[in-house]
Amino acid sequence: MILHTVNHSPFSSFALQDCLKQLGDTDYLLLTGDAVIAVTVPIESKSYLFKLDQEKRLFVLQADINARGLTASYGTTIDYSDFVRLSIECKSQLAW
Amino acid sequence: MNNHPIVKFTILVTSNPASKQSNATAYQFCHAALKAGHLISGVFFYLDGVLTASNLVSPATDEINLPSLWAELAYQYDFPLEVCVSASLRRGIINEQEAEQLDLAHFNLKTPFVLSGLGQLAELSANCDRLMQF
């Protein structure tokens, strides 16, 4: 069980797409920084992200959504203490 | 205070504090982990992350000063701030000893940051429960 963290915008990097290709069946995905944009606008990988959200495996850092004046359409929004909890719950982390 | 076990984190910071947000994300993660009662066994700065160790970083007064924030957190919770020596020398981050050896007029490594090698990162990651990269 891996916590994948992505911090690049889906419009400026392939990090999110690459990560989704490698995501295991029980892995979690956390979007931070500019990557939070992925759950605020329609993007190519939306259906996959939406499925992840339904399986409660998609997380978004609320502070980074707020900092950009955006609203998350889906995904579980979390704060930094939840981020710490997720990193403990998962056996390791992979930063993209 | 907490009903969960105490976890030891090692943090790897590879981003420029002036141009990337993830350096600040790493700081806030550490802050939250320490507040929850966990331990930071050390923070390792690598690649452009070493720029965090400069004593000369002086942002405008209404902006955050990440080098100072890291230094304060490290003093308060007593964990080491390790900086990769080769990445540092390449980017002009120099301690007193290196400046002397290289015959340079100045040094700029901020205390309590220390220059160390990747071996130290290996040791930190071997002796922690979770390695987090930012």
Task: Write up what this structure looks like.
The complex is a heterodimer of chains A (96) and B (134). With 96 residues, chain A is an alpha/beta fold. Chain A has one domain (2-95): DsrEFH-like (Hypothetical Protein Ychn, Chain: A). Chain A has 4 helices and 5 strands. Chain A has helices at residues 15-22, 46-54, 62-67, 80-89, and strands at residues 2-6, 28-31, 58-61, 76-78, 92-95. A 5-stranded parallel sheet of chain A has the order 4-3-2-1-5, with helices on both faces. Chain A starts with a strand and ends with a strand. Chain B is of the alpha/beta class and 134 residues long. Chain B has one domain: DsrEFH-like (Hypothetical Protein Ychn, Chain: A, 3-Layer(aba) Sandwich). Chain B has 5 helices and 5 strands, in the order E-H-E-H-E-H-H-E-H-E. In chain B, strands 4-3-2-1-5 form a 5-stranded parallel sheet, sandwiched between helices. Chain B starts with 7 loop residues before the first strand and ends with a strand. The interface between A and B is medium-sized, with 19 and 20 residues.
